[in-house]
Design goal:
hydrolase, adenine deaminase activity, Adenine_deam, manganese, 7-stranded mixed β-sheet
Length: 578
C-alpha cells in the first residue's frame, strides 16, 4: 500500500469521503467475539475501511442476511478436482470459498517444476486467491517411481513468488527422522523466507510428533481420531479437519474441538472430486457438517475463516473488520450456511450458486504436460501373479470412505500357479504400471472390497506418483483399459467384455481436463452411472478409493510400481505370505 491509498482509506473511515461500496442492514458475523453485530460495512479499493454508519457511491442492501467472512480451504490439491485452476475457481467461488492453500504435488510428481509453473501461471489473476505451498516430497518415498524428482535446489526459485507461502505436507517422515540433508534443506530454505511448513503425520505416535514439531512443522491434516488431534494440539500444531471425497474425518475430529482449543483447528478438503464440489460444496460443506454435529455456527465459521487465515499468516483475510480485504459472503441462514452472494474485494463474483465473475485468460499447457503417458506394451503375462492355490497371500483390504487400508492374509485362489480373481470372494487383481519413463515396472497385488462383479477400471490418478493403476475381474478387460488410458494420455475408464463403457480424458499430466468444468462434471456423472453395469454396488467412489491404494505413506498396505508395500515395516513384501 502506498501513502495515497492509505490516506484514501483513512478518509473513508473518518467519513470525510464516501466509500466505494457500503453494505447496509445486514447481520455481521464477528469471528473475534463470536457475536452478531448490526452495522454498515464501508469498502474502498477492495478493503473494509469501517464498521458503523456509512454512505457510499454504491449501496448493497443485505436486509435479512448474515454477512460472513469468505471461507478459506486450508489444504487442497486442485488437480484432484480434475479441472484447471481457472475452472476450479468458478466452482469454489459459488460455494463462498475465495482463498485456497494449495499443494501442486500431484502435477509436481508427474511434470516436476514445469507442472508447478503451470499451476502458478494458470492461477494468476483469478478472483479466487490461490496461495501455494511447494511440494516437499517428490517422489513421496524412495519406494516408487514418479515422473520427476524435486530437490531443494529445484524449489528454491519458487520461494520468492508472491503467492508461495512455504513448504507443503512433509510426508517423507523417515527422511526427516534420519536427518536427510536435502529434506532438511527444503525446510530450512522455506523457514528462511518466513514460510510455513505443513505436516503429514499419518500413523505417527507422540515421539514422531515431537520430531515433526522440532523440525518446524506446524500443521497436520491426517488425523483420524480425537486422540490424535488432541495430541497434536498439545504439541503446538494446528489440526486441519479434513472432509474430502474419500477421506472423511470431520465427524470423528469435531469431538476434539472445545471452546478452549478451538483456535487451533481449521478446515480443509485435501482431495475432492469435481462432482462432489459441484453437488455438496467445498469448505462450506465442512461448516454445515460441523453445525449438524452440534458445533455453534459462529464457531464453525471461525474455523473456516479467521483460524485458517491466521494459521497461514494471511493477515488481511478471515474477518469482516477494518483493514481486512472485503472478501465476504451473504448468508440467507447461518445454520444451513445458505449462500446467496459472494464478494471478492467488494465485487460480486457469485450469486445464487452461479458464477458472476469475468472470464480469465488461462495459460496453456505445453507438450511436456499433455504427453505424459509413456509406457511399453503390456500383455497378460506381465499381469500374472505367481502364487499357490490355498496358500496364504497378502491382500489390500479397502475401508470404505477412508484412505487407510487393512493388511489381510487370506487363502489364495489360483489356477496353474497364477492368481485368479474371484468376484464371489471380492478378490480382484490390481496393477500399478510405471507410466512416466518406460521403466517397464509393474507392481501386482490383490485387493478386497472394490466390489466390482465384471470388468475393469483404470486411471492415471494414483497418489502420489500417479502411475497407471488398474483393477479388474479379468486380464482381458484390464488390458483394454490400459490401452484406452494410453490413447487418451490419461484419465479414467470403465471396461466390460472388451468394450469401453465410459471415460473421462485428463490430458494435462494425466490429472486434469482442458475442458470447461460443466462438461467435465457431465463426463464424471456418466462415468459413475456406468459403474452399475460392472456390478459395483458400494457406497463409496471406487475410482477415488483406487487412487489412494497406491499411496505408501498411508497405513497399512499399498501397491506401488515396485510391488506391495507394508507401511508398518516400511518395505516391499511379496504377494505370497510366508
Amino acid at each position: 500500500m502506498n501513502i495515497d491509498a492509505l490516506k484514501k482509506r483513512i478518509d473513508v473511515s473518518t467519513k470525510r469521503m464516501p466509500a466505494d461500496v457500503v453494505i447496509k442492514n445486514g447481520k455481521i458475523i464477528d469471528v473475534f467475539n463470536l457475536e452478531i453485530i448490526e452495522r454498515d460495512i464501508a469498502i474502498v479499493d477492495g478493503y473494509i475501511a469501517g464498521i458503523g454508519q456509512y454512505e457510499g457511491h454504491e449501496t448493497i442492501d443485505a436486509s435479512g442476511k448474515f454477512i460472513s467472512p469468505a471461507f478459506i480451504d486450508g489444504h487442497v490439491h486442485i488437480e484432484s478436482s480434475m479441472v484447471t485452476p481457472a475452472e476450479f475457481s468458478k466452482v469454489l467461488l459459488t460455494h463462498g470459498v475465495t482463498t485456497v492453500i494449495t499443494d501442486p504435488h500431484e502435477i509436481g510428481n508427474v511434470s516436476g517444476a514445469k507442472g508447478i509453473s503451470f499451476m502458478l501461471d494458470q492461477s494468476e489473476g483469478l478472483p479466487l486467491d490461490v496461495r501455494v505451498m511447494l511440494p516437499s516430497s517428490v517422489p513421496a518415498t524412495p519406494f516408487e517411481n514418479a515422473g520427476s524428482v524435486l530437490k531443494a535446489s529445484d524449489l528454491e526459485p519458487f520461494l520468492t513468488h508472491p503467492r508461495v507461502l512455504g513448504l507443503a505436507e512433509v510426508m517423507d517422515f523417515p527422511a526427516v527422522f534420519r536427518g536427510d540433508e536435502d529434506m532438511l534443506q527444503k525446510i530450512v530454505s522455506a523457514a528462511a523466507k518466513n514460510g510455513k511448513i505443513d505436516g503429514h503425520a499419518a500413523g505417527l505416535d507422540a515421539d514422531g510428533i515431537n520430531v515433526y514439531r522440532s523440525s518446524l512443522i506446524t500443521t497436520d491434516h491426517e488425523c483420524t481420531t480425537k486422540e490424535e488431534a488432541l495430541e497434536r494440539i498439545s504439541r503446538g500444531m494446528y489440526v486441519l479437519i479434513r472432509e474430502g471425497s474419500v477421506a472423511k474425518n470431520l465427524k470423528a475430529l469435531i469431538k476434539a474441538v472445545t471452546p478452549k482449543n478451538a483456535r487451533r483447528f481449521l478446515f480443509c478438503t485435501d482431495d475432492k472430486h469435481l462432482d462432489d464440489l459441484v453437488a455438496e460444496g467445498s469448505v462450506d460443506h465442512n461448516v454445515r457438517l460441523a453445525i449438524q454435529e452440534g458445533m455453534d455456527p459462529l464457531q464453525a465459521i471461525q474455523l473456516a475463516t479467521l483460524n485458517a487465515a491466521e494459521c497461514y499468516g494471511l493477515k488481511e483475510k478471515g474477518a469482516v473488520a477494518p483493514g481486512y480485504k472485503a472478501d465476504v459472503i451473504l448468508l440467507d441462514d447461518v445454520n444451513s450456511v445458505a449462500i446467496s452472494n459472494v464478494f471478492v474485494g467488494g465485487k460480486l463474483v457469485a450469486q445464487d450458486g452461479k458464477y458472476k465473475g469475468a472470464e480469465s485468460r488461462s495459460a496453456q499447457p505445453s507438450a511436456a504436460l499433455t504427453q505424459s503417458v509413456n509406457m511399453t506394451a503390456i500383455d497378460s503375462e506381465k499381469l500374472a501373479i505367481p502364487i499357490t492355490n490355498g496358500k496364504p497371500m497378502h491382500v489390500i483390504e479397502i475401508i470404505p470412505n477412508q484412505i487407510v487400508t487393512r493388511k489381510k492374509i487370506l487363502a489364495a485362489t489360483a489356477e496353474n500357479g497364477k492368481f485368479t480373481p474371484s468376484h464371489t470372494n471380492d478378490l480382484l487383481k490390481m496393477a500399478v504400471i510405471e507410466r512416466h519413463n518406460k521403466t517397464e515396472n509393474i507392481g501386482l497385488g490383490v485387493v478386497k472390497g472394490l466390489l466390482i462383479q465384471n470388468g475393469a477400471i483404470a486411471s492415471t490418478v494414483a497418489h502420489d506418483s500417479h502411475n497407471l493403476v488398474v483393477s479388474g475381474t479379468n486380464d482381458e478387460d484390464m488390458l483394454v483399459a490400459i490401452d484406452a488410458i494410453r490413447d487418451m494420455q490419461g484419465g479414467y475408464v470403465i471396461v466390460k467384455n472388451g468394450a469401453v463403457l465410459a471415460s473421462v480424458p485428463l490430458p494435462i499430466s494425466g490429472l486434469m481436463s482442458d475442458r470447461p468444468f460443466t462438461e467435465v462434471n457431465d463426463q464424471i456423472i456418466h462415468l459413475k452411472e456406468k459403474l452399475k453395469e460392472i456390478g459395483f454396488h458400494g457406497d463409496f467412489d471406487p475410482f477415488l478409493t483406487l487412487s489412494f491404494l497406491t499411496l505408501p505413506v498411508i497405513p497399512e498396505i499399498k501397491l506401488t510400481d515396485l510391488g506391495l508395500f507394508d507401511f508398518k515395516t516400511f518395505q516391499h513384501i511379496s504377494v505370497q505370505a510366508e
